[in-house]
């Protein structure tokens, strides 16, 4: 079944005309990314040759997708916008609030009990406002979107950084905060700085142990976690065409780990096959009619250096399987070098768990390639040295692999099949013994491996690789095991070698499912009542943030000077805190508790300048707020890296923090700060970071003249009576300064709706 077919027809109907108009204005051949961007300009946006990395542009995305943890805050905001129905097709997917512990059936039942209030809220608000609802257990948002909603040449946004997964079907799909989603659902323009373009030319063909995952693991090693910031990564070449659609999705999915705006591939036969296999032949037929517009122009791919800001070339025939980590997804190590690297760094060599699945690698092809290794273990009498966990990507995937006997093989290895949900990938893993905080190693096919990410244990060394490599390494129980060259001892004492994996791009018998978990909204939701109990610990109706008074902010105290990596996990942890994602005041009690204090190398321990005592970050900030004292947070490079969660912006805003001042921002987080009426600023001179002392206070000298392209000046007042002035840069345009003046972007939307 093809959802929203009329919308797709409308997008395709005038795509050729819009692309031709853009080509005349730009006066050069176009990349695929440019074709999609220019064909999705908002009706109020003037067509011009936009400057990459500089021009702010208004777009009109085709659809919105939200997962349950972020949908709560997005929809609480949408309820304030005064709209009766969403303006574009939108969906909610319940996948984050399901704890993995014992197995799918019991875990789902327990999660329905623990988070029933939230699921009921999301179901009712979806029903009221015309939003498609995917029930708990239906699957992981990005796999479900790929199977049902993604289409070549489309543009979508989603309240999860891995929305970019849909690039595997030729979309420009971008992770955003909930306030951005509200804009689009309310029918407003969606603003994005026109991205730079990185081209990745793929030659050769994957074979043996090398998988699509290894492409992005290699790219992450090249670009690092911030190398793709502000850019779309466009993959092309014969190597790209040789990969499956879901393999392309894997590569795009983990593009979030290099900070990329999104990643995408041109339309080809693998996408046609996937659309038809997932009951969307009508979409494939429509795409084939305009397929020359659903990929980059020939001249672009023939001379990529002329049309991309950066070009990377990877020969798939020579690419070696990689294992990335620990603690960062861009530490890339070829499998042949892992033993040497691990021993040199003192990483635990015994692998305790192998985890397969997540939104990155839970396709039919992924599971069949992994099970081909598992079957060899059974046939060759190899007893796994690690525990196994499996997270199918959707109920359709789970039902199909169960029908085809794949789960039976994993069952013979003692694998634990968890719910079709995020589970350990998002920290929803009740792992036995994790509270002991012992040093250990796990390996998984997920996308992120930050400290504490999977199980809450800061000493868990998590490594990212392909599903087939997870299977091989987990069977060996040895982080240094190289299945390309090494042998294992079986139960009979014999030395046996694993053969390279094999799998199926698509199921030979087709996909099947009894209940995919989808619930269509009411045609008219005006009579649907959305209830939020006043005393709820999980949900809280929002109160609009106060507008700026137009004056300079003075007398600011330093809340924390964060040292080194400060991701959204450090600013607003996931795991057990997910249960408070719909209650801003409660979840604010985890604000910046994971950030390392520059002055004592401790987490959640900052100096209260009013008392001179050290205490938790949230309670210290609440004390400042209660006394009406403004505060500032100072950070390092790529501040806010990781998830799209806008809670990392809303929580400091709610607690009274006025400014986030850093060396550089991750894209989504900077936007989220702007949307919530916060000041997100960067040091004009990065070395000024070193001037910030623990007892400093801060005064703006010219914030009252806040204007586009005009740096700000701040005075630092030191405890010894001395002071110095520093320059601060910002990227606010006039519209974003309007958000700041109003208190938030949502305040402006609500005001316009009332008028």
Automatic annotation (TrEMBL):
Its cofactor is [4Fe-4S] cluster. It catalyses: citrate = D-threo-isocitrate. InterPro entries: Acnase/IPM_dHydase_lsu_aba_1/3 (IPR015931), Acoase/IPM_deHydtase_lsu_aba (IPR001030), Aconitase/3IPM_dehydase_swvl (IPR015928), Aconitase/IPM_isomerase (IPR050926), Aconitase_4Fe-4S_BS (IPR018136), Aconitase_4Fe-4S_dom (IPR036008), Aconitase_dom2 (IPR015932), Aconitase_mito-like (IPR006248). Its EC number is 4.2.1.3. GO terms for cellular component: cytosol. The keyword Plastid does not apply. It is an enzyme of class 4 (lyase). One of its GO terms (biological process) is tricarboxylic acid cycle. Residues 34-477 form the Aconitase/3-isopropylmalate dehydratase large subunit alpha/beta/alpha domain. It holds the Pfam family Aconitase_C. Pathway: Carbohydrate metabolism; tricarboxylic acid cycle; isocitrate from oxaloacetate: step 2/2. Gene3D superfamilies: Aconitase, Domain 2, Aconitase, domain 3, Aconitase, domain 4. Residues 556-686 form the Aconitase A/isopropylmalate dehydratase small subunit swivel domain. GO terms for molecular function: 4 iron, 4 sulfur cluster binding; aconitate hydratase activity; metal ion binding. It comes from the Bacteria. Keywords: Iron, Iron-sulfur, Lyase, Metal-binding, Transit peptide, Tricarboxylic acid cycle. PANTHER family: ACONITATE HYDRATASE B, ACONITATE HYDRATASE, MITOCHONDRIAL. Belongs to the aconitase/IPM isomerase family. NCBIfam families: aconitase_mito, PRK07229.1. This is Aconitate hydratase A. It comes from Fulvivirga lutea.
């Amino acid at each position: 079944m093809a959802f929203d077919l009329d919308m797709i027809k409308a997008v395709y109907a005038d795509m050729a005309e819009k692309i031709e108009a853009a080509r005349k204005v730009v006066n050069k051949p176009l990349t695929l990314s440019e074709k999609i961007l220019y064909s999705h300009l908002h009706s109020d946006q003037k067509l011009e040759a936009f400057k990459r990395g500089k021009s702010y542009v208004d777009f009109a995305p085709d659809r919105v997708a939200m997962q349950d943890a972020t949908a709560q805050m997005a929809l609480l905001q949408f309820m304030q916008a005064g709209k009766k129905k969403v303006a574009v097709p939108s969906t909610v997917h319940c996948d984050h609030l399901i704890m993995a512990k014992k197995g799918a059936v019991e875990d789902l039942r327990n999660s329905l009990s623990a988070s029933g209030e939230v699921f009921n809220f999301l179901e009712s608000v979806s029903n009221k406002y015309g939003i498609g609802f995917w029930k708990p257990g239906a699957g992981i948002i990005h796999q479900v979107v790929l199977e049902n909603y993604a289409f070549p040449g489309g543009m979508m946004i989603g309240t999860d950084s891995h929305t970019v997964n849909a690039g595997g079907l030729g979309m420009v799909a971008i992770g955003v905060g909930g306030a951005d989603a509200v804009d689009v659902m309310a029918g407003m323009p969606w603003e994005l700085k026109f991205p730079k373009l990185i081209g990745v030319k793929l030659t050769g063909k994957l074979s043996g142990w090398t998988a699509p995952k290894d492409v992005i693991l290699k790219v992450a090693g090249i670009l690092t976690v911030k190398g793709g910031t502000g850019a779309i990564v466009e993959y092309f070449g014969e190597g790209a065409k040789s990969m499956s659609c879901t393999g392309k999705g894997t590569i795009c999915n983990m593009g979030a780990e290099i900070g990329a705006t999104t990643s995408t591939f041109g339309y080809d036969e693998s996408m046609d096959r996937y659309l038809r296999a997932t009951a969307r032949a009508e979409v494939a037929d429509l795409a084939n009619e305009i397929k020359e517009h659903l990929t980059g122009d020939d001249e672009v791919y023939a001379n990529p250096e002329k049309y991309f800001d950066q070009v990377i070339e990877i020969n798939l025939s020579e690419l070696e399987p990689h294992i990335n980590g620990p603690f960062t997804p861009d530490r890339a190590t070829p499998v042949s070098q892992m033993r040497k690297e691990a021993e040199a760094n003192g990483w635990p060599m015994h692998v305790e768990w192998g985890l397969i699945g997540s939104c990155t690698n839970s396709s039919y092809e992924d599971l069949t390639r992994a099970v081909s290794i598992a079957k060899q273990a059974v046939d060759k009498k190899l007893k796994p040295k690690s525990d196994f966990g499996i997270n199918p990507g959707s109920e359709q995937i789970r039902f199909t692999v169960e029908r085809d006997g794949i789960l039976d093989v994993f069952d013979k290895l003692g694998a634990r099949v968890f719910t079709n949900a995020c589970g350990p990938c998002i920290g929803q893993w009740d792992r036995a013994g994790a509270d002991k905080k012992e040093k250990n190693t796990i390996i998984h096919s997920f996308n992120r491996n930050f400290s504490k990410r999977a199980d809450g244990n800061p000493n868990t060394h998590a490594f990212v690789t392909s599903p087939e490599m997870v299977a091989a390494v987990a069977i060996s129980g040895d982080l240094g095991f190289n299945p390309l060259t090494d042998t294992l001892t079986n139960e009979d004492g014999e030395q046996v070698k694993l053969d390279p994996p094999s799998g199926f791009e698509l199921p030979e018998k087709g996909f099947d499912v009894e209940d995919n978990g989808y619930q269509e909204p009411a045609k008219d939701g005006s009579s649907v009542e959305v209830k939020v109990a006043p005393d709820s610990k999980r949900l809280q109706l929002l109160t609009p943030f106060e507008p700026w008074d137009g004056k300079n902010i003075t007398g600011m105290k330093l809340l924390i000077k964060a040292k080194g990596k400060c991701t959204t996990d450090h600013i607003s942890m996931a795991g057990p805190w997910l249960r408070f994602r719909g209650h801003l005041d409660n979840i604010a009690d985890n604000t910046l508790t994971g950030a390392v204090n520059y002055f004592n190398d401790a987490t959640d321990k900052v100096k209260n300048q009013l008392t001179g005592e050290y205490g938790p970050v949230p309670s210290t900030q609440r004390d400042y707020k209660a006394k009406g004292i403004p505060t500032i947070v100072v950070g390092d490079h790529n501040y806010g890296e990781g998830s799209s969660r806008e809670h990392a912006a809303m929580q400091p805003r709610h607690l009274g923090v006025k400014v986030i001042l850093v060396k550089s921002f991750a894209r989504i987080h900077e936007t989220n700060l702007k949307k919530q009426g916060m000041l997100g600023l960067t040091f004009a001179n990065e070395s000024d970071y070193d001037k910030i002392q623990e007892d400093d206070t801060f005064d703006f000298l010219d914030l009252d003249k806040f204007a586009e392209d005009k740096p700000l000046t701040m005075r630092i007042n030191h405890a010894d009576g001395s002071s110095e002035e520093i320059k601060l840069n910002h990227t606010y345009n006039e519209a974003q300064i309007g958000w700041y003046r109003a208190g938030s972007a949502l305040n402006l939307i609500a005001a316009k709706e009332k008028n």
